[in-house]
Amino acid sequence: MKAFTLSLLALALISTSCKKSKSNGTVDLPNAELKTRVVTSALTLPWEIIYGPDNQLWVTERSGKISRVNPETGVITPLLTISEVVSNGEGGLLGMALNPAFSTNPWVYVVYNYGSTYREKVVRYTYTNGTLNSPFVILDGIPASSIHNGSRLLITADQKLLITTGDASNAPNAQDLNSLSGKILRVNLDGSIPADNPTAGSRVWSFGHRNPQGLVEANGKIYSSEHGPNNDDEVNIIQKGRNYGWPNVEGYCNETNEKGFCTTNNVVEPIVAWTPTIATCGLTYYNSDYIPQWKNSLLLVNLKASKLIQLKLNDAGTQVAESTDFLVNAFGRLRAICQSPEGKIYIATSNGNQDRIIEIAK
């Protein structure tokens, strides 16, 4: 385990709020001095990281491994390797969610790709005596591909499971309400279809998505980050039954050939978009007093641009008021992010060799 004395903000883009650096390489900001520390560098292509109710970091790796990592010591405790997982291209074992009522029902949900014809399924395990057992299939038969599999999971405040799916290399399916591709799906925790979904008997909550890989609930809203093609990576506010445009619309409704489709199909525009793309990925909402500069912000990690972005929201949580970059090229590709109850941030890299979990703390 290697510790870094450089502060997080020393690695940020120049900001008017920065004061003079101390001799030890840290940077003072009003109310905080932040540092990074490598918790472990013994992972290979981690995809999800969750701060669990046991004060351990729960991690998936694309090869099929699920582990717990001690955030203080970096010790990795394997829980399960799912032998059915097939890691093809960007596929493999991907998202994970823990039941918020973990002490009552210690359920762990994962989504992964499998099979020679390559499909995707969501499976619920039960955590007992340090192991994951009793697999229960929540949803199967989701189209998969070597790219564009979505696969972020989120259990919402109303006890529903949201599942992001990519277009699985078949872009028109994102507009097809009979396809599970290019959607955000919503099911009950047992996999059944909620009665208040937009269309009776359908798992589809929203559609017209290319490859959403970030998902968080805050301010009574669902925020999602999504990969664009060569342009228009996005962050969206997800609304019930709404169309997000792909493949007919890329980013905002600002091109002549997009405007008519947007009007006719009631397309929701992103709250922020990036061209050229940065490969938006894991997303969390920060509102802790531990790092006051980050309050009421979305924290977004990305792959291609290799940085963490703070998206400061307006008071209503409906717009991005300010954007600041951190950790630019400091740790390579960043895949996932989570936070502890105390307010520390943990991020996971996706470089393919000696991948790391990094702690951001005061």
TrEMBL record:
<dbReference type="InterPro" id="IPR011041">
    <property type="entry name" value="Quinoprot_gluc/sorb_DH_b-prop"/>
</dbReference>
<feature type="domain" description="Glucose/Sorbosone dehydrogenase">
    <location>
        <begin position="44"/>
        <end position="354"/>
    </location>
</feature>
<protein>
    <submittedName>
        <fullName>PQQ-dependent dehydrogenase (S-GDH family)</fullName>
    </submittedName>
</protein>
<dbReference type="InterPro" id="IPR012938">
    <property type="entry name" value="Glc/Sorbosone_DH"/>
</dbReference>
<dbReference type="Pfam" id="PF07995">
    <property type="entry name" value="GSDH"/>
</dbReference>
<dbReference type="InterPro" id="IPR011042">
    <property type="entry name" value="6-blade_b-propeller_TolB-like"/>
</dbReference>
